[in-house]
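Lecture 7 notes: from sequence to structure.

We start with a single chain of 347 residues. Read the sequence below before looking at the structure.
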Amino acid sequence: MASRFKFWLAVILAIGFLFFCDAYLGEYSLGIVNNIAIFITLAISYNLINGVTGQFSLEPNGFVAVGAYVAAILLLNADSKLYQFDAAEPSNIILAIYTSNFILAMFISGVCATLLALLLAMPVFRVRGDYLAIVTLGFGFIIQLLAVNFPAFTNGSIGLNEVMRVDSNGDLSRFTNIFYSGGLAIFATIVILNLVYSKFGRAMKAVRDDEDAAIAMGINTFATKTTAFCVSAFFEGMGGALLVGLLGSVSPDQFTFMFTFLLLIIIVLGGLGSTTGAIIGTVLVIGGSEWLRFLDEPMNIFGYQTEAYPGLRMVVFSLVLIFVMLFARKGIMGQMELGDLFRGRRK
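Now the structure, written as tokens:
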């Protein structure tokens, strides 16, 4: 009972933090918090399949790209599409679909990513380990190539721009705000934590620890992995919609393997299998890289004026990551959640 109270207290505090950010933060700081919130959703959903279920998957860039493109196509009206499509004439299907409801566009993006995950599950989960990583890595490349080579649907390598709403004053504004990005991060955290602590969550951990033993115990490992894969894809697709709503544009170059690699760094740093660790890792990686941006600029150190060294922040940030991983081999949280840490319980 006490743990349940603490959980919902944390949720209420998180919601209060969103209102605080909206009221007191400037546009630049609010943009950083928005970005962190989006990557929290992406990291904890990726951690569900990679950390909790133990499947070495490298697919997030593909599902996020699907979500981003679906949202952009839905949110741009026919006139905007006719104006923007330079690589080829837009398909009649693309011209016909439109909604100004961002929440609906987010949900449809998540559903499309989920359906794609369900379609991929059969061939993907016929293999394990490193072979699974290769198959899912190939999927990410395929999605990127399809975005380039089907210009009638995606506008090719040019991508889609000006994905923005018109406010009451007739000005353009971004679809994504702190309540959408932060609200989805909170909702995704609640869903995934409840899933992890359920009977199904124990089955996912059994698959991670020893899949053959799980099969011997009567666990349907294919259904378990497929469900985790689809839940992960759903939130990654919605995260893609939030990204395009924040940036106002989408192009194939945004979703290279480096996008997946960034998420992999986040969940490994936080601790594979720990949702709390994924959140902490996101704040450190996404927020830390922005906080260290001053290192790229000229600095006054004890009266000595230094030159600008572009890229220095990434060198320092990489050294910090190396230092953390040397002293925390299983990540910051290991496989523990925040509640387990307070109770002194290890999993």
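Residues 12-255 form one domain. Keep this in mind for problem set 3.
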